[in-house]
Write a structure and sequence with these properties.
By secondary structure, the protein is α/β, with parallel strands linked by helices. The chain contains 11 helices and 9 strands. Strands 1, 2, 3, 4, 5, 6, 7, 8 and 9 form a 9-stranded mixed sheet that branches.
């Protein structure tokens, strides 16, 4: 008998993408699913689309609520979930037909609390490629956090993961905040005894201009600063993570310089980078991207922004 797995889908203003997302969930080769569609007060036809699908498949539950944001929708979906395990799928993304089965298999085989896969950032489903050289690795909580901070084998996204649902007994996504994943995933890893991760790309993040992090303003930047400050405070008792925390922090400040419109905020980020780039550059675990960003910053931050825009 398969364990029941809850799939929570927060939905807001994604009428164009929603059917493709739901279809990819219904196409899973793991059948014992509870699919919770959370209509977060969407002003378009998303609510009606959800109800249409509920008539098609009895595994689908629909929740209609006032708009409260992504975190609130996830939390409300979790509160109604009855599965032993839970996963989150954003309503404008797509999952591979093996997504849940693979994550579940890896979790059970490793006797882990969280199972992760890689995600592919694509413009359209036509870009999806067959997975090759698939690897599965096991981590304790601190090692998994280190991977997310260095932005290597495990992404900090709430998605592309399968969790034992009881991990969320005392952990919720912060309502009304951006970068909610960065604020939450490491807390779940700290609580987990074991995390298993595969490099297999089974979750497809469709990049589009209307997504949250393409709408940058002072509020988004301020939330990032708050989340980074909170992360540093919560991990200060784990000295083995100090270098990784610093590397993630300096990357956050590069992000702020590229995207903030506030001169004082940009100036503060530049000061932080100047003070800490030498120490980060000595860290052999930082990515090539981070290394290049720091080296170019010695020439000038204007050049950093120019190269980033050129790459985009």
């Amino acid at each position: 008998m398969q364990d029941l797995i809850s799939v929570v889908v927060p939905i807001y203003k994604v009428e164009r993408y929603l059917k493709t997302c739901i279809d990819s969930i219904l196409a899973q080769n793991y059948s014992n699913l509870e699919i919770i569609l959370v209509d977060d007060g969407s002003p378009d036809n998303c609510g009606s689309i959800c109800e249409e699908y509920a008539l098609i498949d009895k595994r689908i539950k629909v929740i209609h609520k006032e708009n409260g944001g992504l975190s609130d929708a996830r939390n409300v979906g979790m509160s109604k979930a009855e599965g032993k395990y839970i996963t989150f799928v954003d309503s404008d993304d797509i999952i591979d037909k093996h997504f849940i089965a693979r994550l579940y298999e890896n979790l059970v085989n490793a006797k882990a609390d969280i199972s992760c896969c890689d995600l592919a950032r694509i413009q359209s489903i036509d870009e999806v490629k067959e997975n090759q050289n698939v690897k599965v690795e096991e981590f304790d909580g601190l090692s998994a956090i280190k991977e997310t901070l260095y932005q290597r084998k495990i992404d900090n996204s709430a998605c592309a993961k399968l969790y034992k649902i009881d991990l969320f007994d005392e952990i919720k996504y912060p309502k009304g905040k951006y970068f909610e994943d960065l604020d939450t995933t490491y807390k779940l890893f700290l609580k987990a005894k074991k995390i298993v991760a595969t490099n297999e790309k089974l979750y497809y993040y469709i990049q589009r201009e209307g997504s949250i992090l393409h709408k940058l303003n002072d509020r988004v930047i301020n939330d990032l600063i708050e989340v980074i400050d909170s992360l540093k405070a919560n991990l200060k008792d784990y000295p083995e993570l100090d270098s990784a925390v610093l590397a993630r922090t300096i990357n956050a400040h590069f992000y702020i310089i590229r995207n903030s419109q506030n001169r004082e905020t940009i100036a503060q980020s530049k000061r932080f980078i100047r003070l800490n780039r030498g120490a980060v550059l000595k860290d052999k675990q930082i990515s090539t991207k981070t290394t290049l960003g720091i080296l170019i910053s010695y020439v000038g931050f204007g050049l950093v922004n120019f190269i980033y825009k050129l790459k985009r």
